[in-house]
Amino acid sequence: MASYMNTSADPCEDFYNYACGNFPSMVRYDPVRASAGMSFKDGDLLFEDRMSLMSDGLERNIYELLVLDRVASSPDQDISDLFNFTRLFYRSCRQWVHTRSGGGFGQPSASLNAANSASFFAGVLDHLNETLWTLCNEEVAMETVLATLVKTGGSGMLGVTLPRQFATNVIENDDFNLTQTARAVVSIDRLSLFLRGSAELERNAFFREWLDFLTERKLGAPLLDFGSLVGNASRPRFQRIIKRIEKSLNDNSLYGPGGCTVPERYSFGLDSGAKYNVSELDELSACVAAAKGGVPFSWSRFFDELLQSPVDRSALVQLPNIKEVINFVNDIKSRPVFAKSNDSSASLLSDDAAFLVFDWLLSFRSFFPPDLQNLKSGRTQVARDIEGDGVASCMLWTKTLLQPILERMYQTAYHQQDFSDVNELVKLIKEAAIAGVRGQSWITPSAKVAIEKKIRAAKETIGLDKISAAEFKAFYAPTLEEFRAVDLRPSNLDRKFGTLFSLALCAYAHKNFDVMSSLSPVTLFMEISPLVVNAFNWIERNQIIFPMAILAPPYYHPSYPPHINLGSIGYVIGHEIGHSFDNTGHQIDQQGAIGHFWDNETEANYLDRMECVRSRYGDYRLYPGGPVHLSNSTLGNDIADIIGIQAAVGALKLLKSRRQGRGRLLPRLPNLPASLSPEQQLFIQAAQSWCFKSESHILDRIYQGWPSHSPHHLRVRGVAENSPEFAEAFKCRRGKPMNPAKKCIFW
């Protein structure tokens, strides 16, 4: 704390300079972060703050988890093996990228790049083929083939995704809203690589070169062997299939008067994603199939296969374009799954089923050789393109695909505590906020009761919602079984990356589809990662969320003195509670219903205070002589800051009053001037949450759009200017810059 302070500055003149004045001289710009995502024309994004430094620490912790076996271990063999799977996934990724880049010996040859990519796709296809071979019998339907491809995690022409709102309702055990919310979004990938018109198709480089790569025999056995599993499909046959599908997607002749009718009550806003139940989709498919003299696609069977459990036929599904989807699945359904080989005893995938496999593989564009990867198609991918030496990409894939395992590893290594003291801190902040509300004359008695009820009803989620070891192991049992069967050695890790990636991708898809079926032990942090340095207010749910990653120094530590924790994580807690009463939150009651939950008199007084904040922050400039700050877009966070710091200060007052007469003084931090009171230290700690280093032209770039947060130094200024307790703690005379005569105060 002391090292960042500029004690030569007057806190009553410029509190940010006093609390953070030495920060720029102590911090250097990170060249990797500065250049990430920036074009040369725009220049590097020169910006560092406490949050980015904390995120750096988080990334270093995760990196050590992945490269050092000793950092996280478990006496439970199954969990230990899952930890090992996660580490080997990352390491095999790094080795694969290393080989791709030439292994440190210059640019690799085209043949080496091709062989490296081929090893990835071979692993992915080995895993897929094992599944597909189990389907090789005459009874298998096209619904099963589509469901199998979808649940292996790729992104084919038919996309099925989990709506966040449904996951929310599962997490909240909200049975009523579960019945009103779509549990899946089904769509056609209209940017799919080939559907650009028949003439262009003939010269389409994506189609020709990617198919050639997957079927060529230069590397030995072809990846897609059209003489074995996937039958006798070929480029001309695929071209005919593509043209037929394109024509089918655009065929609306079967709908309308005298034809098949989309249920009328859902007909409004179809293109924005109308909702239909599974039975209605079955009926519409049956109508279209009957008109064409074919067999209808069974949505019931498709979802039963996808979710591995009988789907409720009244369950809702969201379709942005229902006609397009129905046309596609019925067209595919009208084709056979298998075709007889020359050996009449063997069944091979038909041309259409083989095309679905090929289409599915194209979502792995990031892993094609660089010359093919650069053929931009706008196609949906399962992973972002590889950057640099692969550290960032491999860590991102690990954090995304294996998030629940990595969370447990992180908690095991770095967060053994149960965060019960943070729970107590939340209770204290709530009590302080309620006491502040009760002391306000501008709020009517009935409104005070309503505000207090909302504060007390706020649910808090802290750290992580760790499912039991038994549930965790049961969820990953299929992944673990397949992982143990993989022949892994240090010498072949790069060649096994495709296999491990496929296992991780399946586990990730399995997580989402289990949520759809409502069978998964779902927690909030399956939707919001606890490995993020941030905090949230889920206003519609009246829920405040503090992920594990922010519960670390400098924001929090169990051994910090109470006033230091109150100045950092306490201020954050108060800020998130404050969002429940910002320009949006004050219009939502404790159940999430939209509408004022207090009376008109209180509302009018609140709007006066809200306008005070807008005007005060709107008078600030980004830097001396710079543009005026755009306070309209940051209003919600500015209000939350003011409410938050007052709650933190009020909590310190409550704490001190409870300790009076007990001889229990608040401990002091070393290396701080003895003259600094606990109140002063609280404000300094809060201000230092926003210490930053940047350049004027960078602030122009960051804050001249529609920012959601005020610039860091203006957040500190706004908090100080609008807190009577700040002026009292630092003995600032009335009229000083940090103690203006008029303050924007809520409670």
From TrEMBL:
<dbReference type="GO" id="GO:0046872">
    <property type="term" value="F:metal ion binding"/>
</dbReference>
<dbReference type="Pfam" id="PF05649">
    <property type="entry name" value="Peptidase_M13_N"/>
</dbReference>
<dbReference type="GO" id="GO:0005886">
    <property type="term" value="C:plasma membrane"/>
</dbReference>
<feature type="domain" description="Peptidase M13 N-terminal">
    <location>
        <begin position="11"/>
        <end position="463"/>
    </location>
</feature>
<comment type="similarity">
    <text>Belongs to the peptidase M13 family.</text>
</comment>
<keyword id="KW-0378">Hydrolase</keyword>
<keyword id="KW-0479">Metal-binding</keyword>
<dbReference type="InterPro" id="IPR018497">
    <property type="entry name" value="Peptidase_M13_C"/>
</dbReference>
<keyword id="KW-0862">Zinc</keyword>
<dbReference type="GO" id="GO:0016485">
    <property type="term" value="P:protein processing"/>
</dbReference>
<dbReference type="InterPro" id="IPR000718">
    <property type="entry name" value="Peptidase_M13"/>
</dbReference>
<dbReference type="InterPro" id="IPR042089">
    <property type="entry name" value="Peptidase_M13_dom_2"/>
</dbReference>
<feature type="domain" description="Peptidase M13 C-terminal">
    <location>
        <begin position="534"/>
        <end position="744"/>
    </location>
</feature>
<protein>
    <recommendedName>
        <fullName>Peptidase_M13 domain-containing protein</fullName>
    </recommendedName>
</protein>
<dbReference type="Pfam" id="PF01431">
    <property type="entry name" value="Peptidase_M13"/>
</dbReference>
<dbReference type="GO" id="GO:0004222">
    <property type="term" value="F:metalloendopeptidase activity"/>
</dbReference>
<dbReference type="InterPro" id="IPR024079">
    <property type="entry name" value="MetalloPept_cat_dom_sf"/>
</dbReference>
<keyword id="KW-0645">Protease</keyword>
<keyword id="KW-0482">Metalloprotease</keyword>
<dbReference type="InterPro" id="IPR008753">
    <property type="entry name" value="Peptidase_M13_N"/>
</dbReference>
